[in-house]
Amino acid sequence: MQPLPYFQFRDFPAGLEAQVQQALLEAVAGKQYVLGPQVQAFEQEFATYLGAGAAVGVGNGYDALVIALKALGVGAGDEVVLPVHTFIATVNAVLQVGAKPVLAEPDKHTYNLTAETAARHINPKTKAILAVHLYGQVCQMEGLQGLAQSQSIKLLEDAAQAHGAKYKGQQAGSFGDAAAFSFYPTKNLGALGDAGAVVTSDADVKAFARKYRNYGESQKYTSEQVGINSRLDELHAAVLRVKLQLLDAMNAERQRLAQVYLQALQNTGDLILPQTAPDCEHVYHIFNIRTKYRNELQAYLQEQGIGTAIHYPVPVHLQPAYTFLGYKAGDFPVAEELASTSLSLPLYPGLTEPEQQRVVEKVKAFFSKV
Ligand SMILES: *Cc1c(COP(=O)(O)O)cnc(C)c1O
Q1: How far, in Å, is the centroid of ligand 1 from the Cα of 240?
Q2: Ligand 1: which of 157, 161, 198 to mutate, judged by most atoms within 8 Å of the beta carbon?
């Protein structure tokens, strides 16, 4: 049996790779390389797709978070409320701008930050809420928008795992004062290397981000503000334009594959399967299952040649590098349970039916023995 890795790039929809190669050739012939016409066109097309005012292409998702936080005026002395169950980049970005990350428990069922859990941490120092649309499901945004408005604080979305996901028919990344996207290759919309975008409908945030990503320049060699270099390359933008056209088709395939798992794995052992909240269209960046036999199941699948992943094995508050934040084991029981029970199954556009059946059979075989 061929090993089945947790993730692989496949030519899906068929012809994607040829289209990507063609776009690359054209971008090479354009000889612009950085912040040229491909970037401009992608920014326009992505903003239109999201129903947002503007997208500003940057170097990666982390920079998008940092630039968005800065654009919203978050800095030293400010607190930012964010979920403890997230990728480390979210909390890192808050520290990068000199603010204090204040961690909040996720919801038990959606694994996302909610207005209820965020509200417990709001005080006069709170400058923003940073909501993460984890695994491809948008947070319950109505509550979070209401909370941010009533407290006169900013709302920022980390949409790095939620390209094309919707809540009440509206696109992830179009709810907050700003949103950060990553186009890391494995994301639902991925470049051929590092890339990201700040998305906003606020003209001031847009203006700040456009300057800040390029040394603060408003025009060549005139810096109106201090900035950094976090520019988007033409080659990435050209590829992203092709893949944006196919994003809905790729997400629909992820949803179809998720339905197969959801059907086949119901009532299997103690498995807890992902739940989609009523107003959400989940895009399954990650298909997460939970079991108290997580480590044993992962080892068994590995023996059977099936790769899996854990998102995330150590919650932010227990990461060795972040002990200075002052948290301890037991502070976030929901997140700690997620960390010890979560397992991500292979799910990506192009995963074949026999491959997926093999995963299903082996998971079931494992639970028939425990
Ligand atoms: C991937 C990711 C990021 C960071 O994006 P990079 O492009 O890798 O810097 C931030 N937040 C979340 C939730 C992510 O999944």
Answers
A1: 17
A2: 161
